[in-house]
Write a structure and sequence with these properties.
Rossmann fold; 8 strands; binds NADP nicotinamide-adenine-dinucleotide phosphate; alpha/beta
Protein backbone atom coordinates (compact mmCIF):
# COMPACT_ATOMS: atom_id res chain seq x y z
CA UNK A 1 0.00 0.00 0.00
CA UNK A 2 1.10 3.56 -0.66
CA UNK A 3 -0.01 6.53 1.41
CA UNK A 4 0.07 10.30 1.33
CA UNK A 5 -0.33 12.56 4.33
CA UNK A 6 -1.99 15.91 4.89
CA UNK A 7 -0.64 17.59 8.02
CA UNK A 8 2.64 17.57 9.90
CA UNK A 9 1.57 17.96 13.53
CA UNK A 10 1.56 15.52 16.45
CA UNK A 11 -0.51 12.75 14.86
CA UNK A 12 0.74 13.20 11.29
CA UNK A 13 4.33 12.90 12.54
CA UNK A 14 3.70 9.70 14.50
CA UNK A 15 1.65 8.19 11.66
CA UNK A 16 4.28 9.05 9.07
CA UNK A 17 7.04 7.49 11.18
CA UNK A 18 4.96 4.36 11.87
CA UNK A 19 4.12 3.97 8.17
CA UNK A 20 7.76 4.46 7.24
CA UNK A 21 8.83 1.88 9.82
CA UNK A 22 6.23 -0.57 8.44
CA UNK A 23 7.75 0.03 4.99
CA UNK A 24 4.59 1.61 3.63
CA UNK A 25 5.71 3.93 0.86
CA UNK A 26 4.80 7.55 1.62
CA UNK A 27 4.32 9.64 -1.50
CA UNK A 28 3.38 13.22 -0.78
CA UNK A 29 3.16 15.24 2.42
CA UNK A 30 1.28 18.53 2.40
CA UNK A 31 1.04 20.88 5.35
CA UNK A 32 -0.54 24.27 5.90
CA UNK A 33 2.96 25.68 6.23
CA UNK A 34 5.15 24.19 3.52
CA UNK A 35 8.31 24.20 5.66
CA UNK A 36 6.61 21.82 8.14
CA UNK A 37 5.84 19.40 5.31
CA UNK A 38 9.51 19.60 4.25
CA UNK A 39 10.73 18.80 7.78
CA UNK A 40 8.47 15.75 8.10
CA UNK A 41 9.02 14.52 4.53
CA UNK A 42 12.80 14.47 5.14
CA UNK A 43 12.38 12.14 8.11
CA UNK A 44 10.35 9.53 6.19
CA UNK A 45 11.75 9.63 2.68
CA UNK A 46 8.68 11.37 1.22
CA UNK A 47 8.16 14.38 -1.02
CA UNK A 48 6.80 17.62 0.43
CA UNK A 49 4.22 19.14 -1.91
CA UNK A 50 3.14 22.77 -2.14
CA UNK A 51 -0.38 22.11 -3.44
CA UNK A 52 -2.96 19.56 -2.29
CA UNK A 53 -3.73 19.01 -5.98
CA UNK A 54 -0.32 17.30 -6.31
CA UNK A 55 -1.61 14.58 -3.96
CA UNK A 56 -4.59 13.95 -6.26
CA UNK A 57 -2.22 13.08 -9.06
CA UNK A 58 0.16 10.88 -7.08
CA UNK A 59 -0.09 7.11 -7.04
CA UNK A 60 -1.06 6.63 -3.42
CA UNK A 61 -3.93 4.34 -2.36
CA UNK A 62 -4.89 6.37 0.67
CA UNK A 63 -4.50 9.91 1.92
CA UNK A 64 -4.59 10.44 5.67
CA UNK A 65 -5.84 13.89 6.71
CA UNK A 66 -4.40 14.79 10.09
CA UNK A 67 -5.05 18.49 10.51
CA UNK A 68 -6.96 20.43 13.16
CA UNK A 69 -10.60 19.29 13.29
CA UNK A 70 -11.95 22.59 11.97
CA UNK A 71 -9.88 22.33 8.77
CA UNK A 72 -10.74 18.71 7.83
CA UNK A 73 -13.81 19.48 5.67
CA UNK A 74 -11.97 22.23 3.80
CA UNK A 75 -9.01 19.95 3.06
CA UNK A 76 -11.28 17.03 2.04
CA UNK A 77 -13.12 19.33 -0.37
CA UNK A 78 -9.83 19.88 -2.19
CA UNK A 79 -9.44 16.12 -2.63
CA UNK A 80 -12.75 15.54 -4.47
CA UNK A 81 -10.98 14.16 -7.53
CA UNK A 82 -8.71 11.81 -5.59
CA UNK A 83 -9.39 8.20 -6.54
CA UNK A 84 -7.99 6.45 -3.45
CA UNK A 85 -9.40 6.53 0.09
CA UNK A 86 -9.55 9.84 1.93
CA UNK A 87 -9.47 9.22 5.71
CA UNK A 88 -9.25 11.61 8.64
CA UNK A 89 -7.77 10.84 12.07
CA UNK A 90 -10.18 12.72 14.31
CA UNK A 91 -12.21 11.34 17.21
CA UNK A 92 -14.76 14.11 16.98
CA UNK A 93 -15.55 14.49 13.28
CA UNK A 94 -18.28 12.36 11.67
CA UNK A 95 -17.54 9.97 8.82
CA UNK A 96 -19.98 11.85 6.59
CA UNK A 97 -17.88 15.02 6.84
CA UNK A 98 -16.00 13.37 3.95
CA UNK A 99 -19.10 12.33 1.98
CA UNK A 100 -18.24 14.66 -0.90
CA UNK A 101 -15.38 12.25 -1.71
CA UNK A 102 -15.88 8.95 -3.53
CA UNK A 103 -14.00 6.67 -1.12
CA UNK A 104 -13.63 7.76 2.47
CA UNK A 105 -13.11 6.63 6.01
CA UNK A 106 -11.81 7.31 9.51
CA UNK A 107 -8.45 6.19 10.89
CA UNK A 108 -8.65 7.36 14.51
CA UNK A 109 -5.71 6.51 16.77
CA UNK A 110 -6.91 6.50 20.37
CA UNK A 111 -3.79 7.75 22.10
CA UNK A 112 -2.25 11.05 23.19
CA UNK A 113 0.43 12.07 20.71
CA UNK A 114 3.06 14.73 21.11
CA UNK A 115 5.42 15.21 18.19
CA UNK A 116 8.64 14.87 20.17
CA UNK A 117 7.57 12.06 22.53
CA UNK A 118 8.20 8.59 21.06
CA UNK A 119 5.71 5.82 21.64
CA UNK A 120 5.17 2.23 20.56
CA UNK A 121 2.66 2.56 17.71
CA UNK A 122 1.98 -1.21 17.73
CA UNK A 123 0.08 -0.66 21.01
CA UNK A 124 -2.08 2.22 19.73
CA UNK A 125 -5.78 1.28 19.34
CA UNK A 126 -6.85 2.21 15.81
CA UNK A 127 -10.58 2.89 15.38
CA UNK A 128 -11.77 2.46 11.81
CA UNK A 129 -14.87 3.37 9.86
CA UNK A 130 -15.46 3.60 6.09
CA UNK A 131 -18.21 4.31 3.58
CA UNK A 132 -18.03 0.85 1.96
CA UNK A 133 -16.99 -2.59 3.10
CA UNK A 134 -14.24 -2.65 0.50
CA UNK A 135 -12.77 0.61 1.83
CA UNK A 136 -13.03 -0.71 5.39
CA UNK A 137 -11.04 -3.80 4.38
CA UNK A 138 -8.36 -1.54 2.87
CA UNK A 139 -8.17 0.50 6.06
CA UNK A 140 -7.94 -2.71 8.10
CA UNK A 141 -5.03 -3.91 5.96
CA UNK A 142 -3.18 -0.67 6.53
CA UNK A 143 -4.02 -0.60 10.25
CA UNK A 144 -2.76 -4.18 10.73
CA UNK A 145 0.65 -3.10 9.42
CA UNK A 146 0.90 -0.47 12.15
CA UNK A 147 -0.85 -1.80 15.22
CA UNK A 148 -1.90 -4.98 17.02
CA UNK A 149 -5.03 -3.25 18.26
CA UNK A 150 -7.59 -2.52 15.53
CA UNK A 151 -11.31 -1.82 16.08
CA UNK A 152 -14.32 -1.09 13.92
CA UNK A 153 -16.09 1.86 15.56
CA UNK A 154 -18.97 3.90 14.12
CA UNK A 155 -19.25 7.68 14.33
CA UNK A 156 -21.57 7.70 17.38
CA UNK A 157 -19.33 5.31 19.34
CA UNK A 158 -16.23 7.25 18.30
CA UNK A 159 -17.72 10.51 19.63
CA UNK A 160 -18.16 8.83 23.03
CA UNK A 161 -14.66 7.33 22.91
CA UNK A 162 -13.29 10.78 22.23
CA UNK A 163 -15.30 12.31 25.08
CA UNK A 164 -14.09 9.54 27.41
CA UNK A 165 -10.53 10.25 26.26
CA UNK A 166 -10.92 13.91 27.22
CA UNK A 167 -11.96 12.86 30.74
CA UNK A 168 -9.29 10.15 31.01
CA UNK A 169 -6.38 12.06 29.52
CA UNK A 170 -6.83 15.78 28.82
CA UNK A 171 -8.45 16.68 32.15
CA UNK A 172 -6.04 14.68 34.37
CA UNK A 173 -3.15 16.26 32.47
CA UNK A 174 -4.60 19.72 33.19
CA UNK A 175 -4.80 18.74 36.85
CA UNK A 176 -1.16 17.57 36.79
CA UNK A 177 -0.46 21.12 35.64
CA UNK A 178 -2.29 22.55 38.67
CA UNK A 179 -0.19 20.27 40.90
CA UNK A 180 2.94 21.44 39.06
CA UNK A 181 2.11 25.10 39.75
CA UNK A 182 1.19 24.52 43.41
CA UNK A 183 4.48 22.70 43.97
CA UNK A 184 6.50 25.37 42.16
CA UNK A 185 4.91 28.11 44.27
CA UNK A 186 6.32 26.35 47.33
CA UNK A 187 9.76 25.52 45.87
CA UNK A 188 8.91 21.82 45.47
CA UNK A 189 10.04 19.86 42.43
CA UNK A 190 7.49 18.12 40.18
CA UNK A 191 9.69 14.99 40.35
CA UNK A 192 8.39 14.33 43.89
CA UNK A 193 4.89 13.68 42.57
CA UNK A 194 5.78 11.67 39.43
CA UNK A 195 5.67 8.23 41.17
CA UNK A 196 2.16 9.08 42.46
CA UNK A 197 0.97 9.93 38.96
CA UNK A 198 2.52 6.75 37.56
CA UNK A 199 0.95 4.54 40.25
CA UNK A 200 -2.49 6.14 39.77
CA UNK A 201 -2.42 5.29 36.06
CA UNK A 202 -0.88 1.86 36.71
CA UNK A 203 -3.55 0.81 39.20
CA UNK A 204 -6.39 1.15 36.68
CA UNK A 205 -4.64 -1.21 34.28
CA UNK A 206 -5.86 -4.07 36.46
CA UNK A 207 -8.76 -2.54 38.43
CA UNK A 208 -11.61 -0.08 37.86
CA UNK A 209 -11.07 3.58 38.78
CA UNK A 210 -14.14 3.94 40.99
CA UNK A 211 -12.84 1.08 43.17
CA UNK A 212 -9.37 2.65 43.39
CA UNK A 213 -10.43 6.14 44.55
CA UNK A 214 -8.47 7.40 47.55
CA UNK A 215 -8.15 10.81 49.24
CA UNK A 216 -10.03 13.02 51.70
CA UNK A 217 -13.29 13.23 49.68
CA UNK A 218 -13.88 9.46 49.46
CA UNK A 219 -13.07 9.18 53.19
CA UNK A 220 -15.22 12.25 53.85
CA UNK A 221 -12.45 13.73 56.01
CA UNK A 222 -14.13 17.08 56.63
CA UNK A 223 -11.25 18.80 58.44
CA UNK A 224 -8.74 17.94 55.71
CA UNK A 225 -11.14 19.08 52.98
CA UNK A 226 -11.58 22.39 54.82
CA UNK A 227 -7.77 22.85 55.17
CA UNK A 228 -7.30 22.31 51.45
CA UNK A 229 -10.06 24.79 50.62
CA UNK A 230 -8.36 27.37 52.89
CA UNK A 231 -5.04 26.80 51.09
CA UNK A 232 -6.79 27.54 47.78
CA UNK A 233 -8.29 30.86 48.89
CA UNK A 234 -6.04 32.80 46.52
CA UNK A 235 -6.90 30.55 43.55
CA UNK A 236 -10.62 30.97 42.89
CA UNK A 237 -10.73 28.69 39.81
CA UNK A 238 -8.78 25.86 41.44
CA UNK A 239 -11.00 26.16 44.54
CA UNK A 240 -14.11 25.77 42.35
CA UNK A 241 -12.60 22.70 40.68
CA UNK A 242 -11.52 21.26 44.04
CA UNK A 243 -15.00 21.62 45.53
CA UNK A 244 -16.81 20.27 42.45
CA UNK A 245 -14.56 17.21 42.11
CA UNK A 246 -14.69 16.50 45.85
CA UNK A 247 -18.52 16.61 45.79
CA UNK A 248 -18.59 14.21 42.82
CA UNK A 249 -16.14 11.82 44.53
CA UNK A 250 -18.29 11.85 47.71
CA UNK A 251 -21.27 10.68 45.62
CA UNK A 252 -19.35 7.46 44.87
CA UNK A 253 -18.97 6.61 48.59
N1 LIG B 1 -2.80 14.86 19.42
C1 LIG B 1 -3.50 13.81 19.76
O1 LIG B 1 -3.21 13.23 20.79
C2 LIG B 1 -4.59 13.27 18.85
C3 LIG B 1 -5.01 11.95 19.08
C4 LIG B 1 -5.95 11.38 18.21
C5 LIG B 1 -6.47 12.12 17.16
N2 LIG B 1 -6.08 13.43 17.00
C6 LIG B 1 -6.64 14.15 15.83
O2 LIG B 1 -5.61 14.27 14.83
C7 LIG B 1 -5.76 15.53 14.13
C8 LIG B 1 -4.48 16.33 14.26
O3 LIG B 1 -4.25 16.60 15.61
P1 LIG B 1 -2.77 17.00 16.12
O4 LIG B 1 -2.77 16.89 17.59
O5 LIG B 1 -1.76 16.28 15.32
O6 LIG B 1 -2.76 18.54 15.74
P2 LIG B 1 -1.50 19.55 15.71
O7 LIG B 1 -0.27 18.89 16.21
O8 LIG B 1 -1.97 20.79 16.36
O9 LIG B 1 -1.32 19.81 14.15
C9 LIG B 1 -2.32 20.46 13.44
C10 LIG B 1 -2.09 20.32 11.97
O10 LIG B 1 -3.14 21.06 11.31
C11 LIG B 1 -2.56 21.90 10.33
N3 LIG B 1 -3.40 23.07 10.16
C12 LIG B 1 -3.62 24.09 11.03
N4 LIG B 1 -4.50 24.98 10.51
C13 LIG B 1 -4.84 24.51 9.28
C14 LIG B 1 -5.67 24.99 8.23
N5 LIG B 1 -6.38 26.12 8.36
N6 LIG B 1 -5.77 24.24 7.10
C15 LIG B 1 -5.07 23.09 6.96
N7 LIG B 1 -4.25 22.59 7.91
C16 LIG B 1 -4.14 23.30 9.06
C17 LIG B 1 -1.18 22.24 10.85
O11 LIG B 1 -0.35 22.58 9.79
P3 LIG B 1 0.97 23.50 10.00
O12 LIG B 1 1.66 22.92 11.21
O13 LIG B 1 1.75 23.33 8.75
O14 LIG B 1 0.47 24.88 10.26
C18 LIG B 1 -0.77 20.91 11.50
O15 LIG B 1 -0.21 20.05 10.53
C19 LIG B 1 -7.00 16.19 14.72
O16 LIG B 1 -8.11 15.85 13.93
C20 LIG B 1 -7.11 15.56 16.10
O17 LIG B 1 -8.45 15.54 16.57
C21 LIG B 1 -5.15 14.01 17.81
Amino acid sequence: MRASIIGSGNVATHLAKALHQAQVEIHGIWSHQFENAVLLAKQVGAKAVRQISEIIQDESDIVLISVKDDAIAEVAAQLRNYRGIVAHTSGAIALNALSGNANYGVFYPLQTFSKHKNLDFSQVPLCLEANTNQNLQQLKMLAALLSNSVFEVDTEQRKILHLAAVFACNFPNYLYGVAQQLLAQHQLDFDIIRPLIAETAQKVQTALPIEMQTGPAIRNDQQTLKKHEDLLKGHADWLTIYKLLSEQIKKNR
